[in-house]
Specification:
Elements lengths: L19 H11 L6 H21 L4 E2 L40 H8 L2 H4 L16 H14 L6 E7 L1 H7 L8 H21 L3 E5 L2 H8 L6 H18 L8 E5 L18 H4 L6 E4 L12 H4 L7 E7 L9 H15 L7 E2 L14 H23 L1
Parallel strand pairs: 1-2, 2-3, 3-4, 4-5, 5-6, 6-7
């Protein structure tokens, strides 16, 4: 995964704007009102091909399926696991959102989005087991079919981490948080290993390692919060124990929404725990106004020799298209602290973490990717000559 091609490779976090014809189908599926499952599956397969082509045309080197088949990057697991048979809750109802406490009208505007309201987040009400592999195998097959005949440097597939699932799907069954996260890790291990065995790179989505501080645990002491996310990392490491670190990447973030973010935990306060996770590649926010400065953390924290970073070069919440020269400047700063060979370019987060909820206009997404590719060319010329 480290750069060996004498240039900075481009990738992204995972979710991309779904083709318009799929939004209604995904909503119907979420509401258990899908009339023609075969038509849905055909639309997903075609959508993945379209998304892969768009990534390649925009200059993305390491692509994915855009999470086209999923209603969201985290709650999709409720359909693949037992134990989530209860009545669906409103997504966001269990969030503290500390940075919105002073701005309740802003929170209502964000959480009241009708597309977000379609996403069900049922609580765990029974023992958790992985049902079967049909859905993940279908996702794998769709991505591999879409890769046929296109030239890319690699491909990845995302899966929710035990920690982030435990945040979005509350626990009403297990006696302790540790037991709940542990059960999720044991179950999700099946999906993780299936993705790895397919030959695709496994991406673990772990926004809980940063985001949960102000969204779910704002009232914990820092020591208790660190203990909580350390438990999440231990569960993740347990679930991926049989997968080589260099076949995995992980993503952490502070929440993919345009908000104050003034209570976000500093990267410096969690980086030691993050670096204990097994995946060799770490994707993190680095483009938005709240976290762009945190490249400086690696002036004092040495990146392990077996790790590679994917700092975000594109803000996933604004329709501004970053200038290629700015992207090059950002990459050169990161290269100065972690080295050019341990660096790729990515996005702060997904561009459609919930289907239909796209703060960045779909056409602008592809302009952003083209700007990132050009910025990488500029930076690579300076770094390699």
């Amino acid at each position: 995964m480290a750069n060996d091609s004498k240039r900075i490779l481009t990738t992204h976090t995972g979710s991309l704007p779904r083709p318009a014809r799929l939004i209604g189908l995904l909503g119907a599926r979420e509401e258990r009102k899908l009339d023609d499952p075969a038509a849905f599956e055909a639309a997903v397969a075609e959508g993945v091909k379209e998304i892969v082509r768009s990534q390649v045309e925009a200059g993305v080197d390491i692509v994915n399926d855009g999470e086209v088949s999923k209603i969201s990057y985290s709650t999709y697991v409720k359909d693949r696991l037992t134990g989530f048979e209860g009545e669906g809750l409103l997504l966001g109802s269990g969030m503290a959102l500390a940075d919105f406490r002073e701005f309740p009208e802003l929170a209502a505007r964000m959480l009241g989005n009708p597309d977000m309201a379609k996403t069900k987040a049922p609580a765990c009400d029974g023992p958790i087991k992985y049902k079967d592999l049909r859905e993940v195998e279908r996702d794998i097959a769709n991505l591999k079919a879409a890769l046929d005949g296109v030239h890319v440097q690699g491909a990845f597939m995302s899966a929710a981490s035990p920690g982030v699932i435990s945040g979005f799907l509350p626990n009403h069954h297990y006696k302790t948080a540790d037991a709940y996260v542990g059960a999720l890790a044991d179950a999700m291990k099946v999906e993780y290993e299936a993705i790895h065995k397919s030959g695709l790179t496994l991406q673990l989505d772990c926004p809980d390692l940063a985001m949960s501080r102000h969204i779910w645990f704002p009232d914990l002491s820092m020591a208790d919060f660190r203990q909580r996310i350390a438990m999440h990392v231990e569960a993740l490491n347990h679930a991926t124990a049989s997968i080589p670190p260099d076949r995995m990447r992980m993503h952490l973030c502070w929440g993919n929404y345009e908000g104050p973010h003034h209570y976000d935990v500093a990267l410096a306060e969690i980086i030691d725990i993050v670096l204990k996770a097994r995946p060799a590649v770490i994707s993190l926010e680095a483009a938005n106004p709240r976290h762009e400065h945190e490249w400086q953390v690696f002036e004092s924290v040495k990146l392990p020799a077996d790790k590679t970073l994917i700092p975000g070069m594109l803000d996933s919440t604004t329709n501004f298209v970053e200038h290629p020269q700015l992207i090059a400047q950002r990459l050169l700063r990161w290269a100065s602290v972690v080295g050019r060979d341990h660096l790729m370019a990515g996005t702060d987060c997904g561009f459609a973490t919930f289907a239909g909820l796209t703060p960045v206009y779909p056409g602008v997404v592809w302009l952003k990717f083209k700007a990132m590719a050009e910025g990488c060319r500029i930076a690579s010329q300076k770094l390699w000559g």
